[in-house]
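I am still learning, so would you mind making up any protein sequence you like and the tokens describing how it folds?
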Amino acid sequence: MRIARFSVNDEVAYGLVDTDQDSGQDYVSRISGHPLMGQFQLTGERAKVEDVRLLSPVLPSKVVCIGKNYADHVAEMSGITGPSTEEPVVFLKPSTSVAGPGDPVFYPPVSQRVDFEGELAIVIARPCREVPRERAKDVIFGYTVANDVTARDLQQTDKQWTRAKGFDSFCPIGPWIETGLSLEEAGDLRLTTTVDGEVRQDGRTSQFIHDIPAVISYVTSFMTLLPGDVLLTGTPAGVGPVQTGQEMTVTVEKVGSLTNRVVPRD
């Protein structure tokens, strides 16, 4: 099941996305209620996805990110962010960094290098803390696509990552939440990132250093996650700079594609 958050006629709603088998056209069927609250019903209203504006599928209280979770990315970043660790590297992006599919990513004037980082993201289903590995699947609502946009030069000069990762618009997520994947399926998905149609990243989630149960168990060992919180799982090798005017598309197999254009900050 694909669950989208969208707006039409200035009204925000949730809906179920399905593909018409004859035309290949995606439609969104509006639902009443909040999908993370459990019960919801179809309202009977239906529209083409192209006729609505897709929004970030959730508004998380926080975005928890895992750094250095692909060995090839650790190798390419060793001169910038230091060595990897045996435990997951955790950092936060503020909720104000969240953007939706099609939203602009603003290039901050204080940075000379802004990078894309395509990632698989987990959406949390319920309040959870100290989750054992074997219960990780019980707290996952679904999966979406994310771009951990980073001001790379500021990451290097600041010696910590908050400013470099935290600018408004630096966490696009979407286009929807896919709830139908098992842990096993999510653990081996192809992830690609293109810039203006050129492939820059091409990896698989099977390359994780710390798999999804390990990440959830580790993060919840010291932090309570709330319904709708988003957990980014790391990026594969191939990260690199983008310039204003360029278009980034992150695609995760069986989940969807997330496209955003880089624009100057006025």
Q: What stands out?
A: The first strand starts at residue 2 and ends at 8.
